[in-house]
Amino acid sequence: MNYPASVEYLYALGNELKTAKLGLECVSAVASKLGDPQRAFRTIHVAGTNGKGSTCAMIASALGAALYTSPHLVEPTERIVIGGKPATKEQFARAFEQVHAVSEEMIAAGELESHPTYFETVTLMAFCLFKEARVEWAVIEVGLGGRLDATNIVTPEVCVITPVDYDHEAWLGKSIESIAFEKAGILKPNTPAVIAPQHPAAMRVIEDRAREVGAELIPVAVPDAVVDAWGSQFAIEGITYTCQLAGRHQVVNAATAIAACKRVGLDARGIAKAKWPGRLEKIGKFILDGAHNPAGARALAAYIGEFHAGKKIGLIYGAMRDKSVEEIVAELFPLAYEVVVTAPGQARALRPEAILEMEPHARARAAASIGDALESDFESELIFITGSLYLVGEARAILVQ
Prior knowledge:
Layout lengths: L2 H10 L12 H9 L8 E6 L4 H12 L2 E3 L11 E3 L2 E2 L2 H20 L9 H16 L3 E5 L16 E4 L7 H4 L3 H8 L9 E3 L4 H14 L3 E3 L5 E4 L2 E6 L2 E5 L5 H15 L15 E5 L2 E4 L4 H14 L5 E6 L6 H8 L5 E4 L10 H7 L5 E3 L3 H5 L7 E6 L1 H11 L2
Parallel strand pairs: 1-5, 1-6, 2-5, 6-7, 7-8, 13-17, 14-15, 14-17, 15-16
Antiparallel strand pairs: 2-3, 3-4, 9-10, 10-11, 12-13
């Protein structure tokens, strides 16, 4: 099966979030038939609400490790990174065929009720490609929650939990405690766990789970840092580190990544090479940032307030219906001189007009698509494109040619 056909089949499995199937039975069974490829390399497993992708990117950069992350911005191949580069289309298609063939055989034999979901399939594909490439280390980002996430079949050298906050409440629960319970589900017996600074309620849940399974907790101390609009520099135990990811919140993520690297006895200074597209990424006069939940919106608002106060700021915003849009736009719209609301090309997208009703703005207008929004006549010095990561991906596909 070629790459377009494999992607078409994956999409036919249904929307990644709407068809999410929390549980390890299916992914474990297929992994076993594949020879448990996830056991062929050493892993660092990362859960959390915000910052886990950035933290994964920094750990992978420092260790020269393979990386499995989600979601993608433009192409699904971005999720599987080997040697610092996304999987090729040929690799992706070959891995899909491998997982798909085994799944179909198991269904025909009555060993499996249905095909693995989109996320389960791509997770297994990543494990197969990492095994094939004989990678030594892989950094694995949790997709949704942790306890029942398909990635939780790995046996990590160290677990990491980045800050826990509200997101995906329909799946993970409506309290910090319930969300933290799901994230803490990645903790394993006798496995060290690096824990970023947490809300006290989340930390209590994580500590309870650690005691239950006998996991050593390693709390992250956030260093004083020199931070500018495009990165930061700081020292930990006499070693100076540079982070090229923008935003003061990235100091927390960098310190977390460093603690994970140190726990496995490896040099972390390679975090300086890390890049994470679509997160405060500057392309000309546009800055792309996937602030798709309230914590992300607060981090973006803090960044604008600290480094771009006094400037005319433009905002292009679009979101999905299942997000806390009212809370997010209340945080961001007052900071903008002008606002263009639009919708990503997804069935779950919220109508631009509905967004404008939530948070009226004197200089707000609607655009039918991100392409139309980018062509708007802006008076602003900087234009932030934010909200849905789907929207950020669509914008990036246009801006990066």
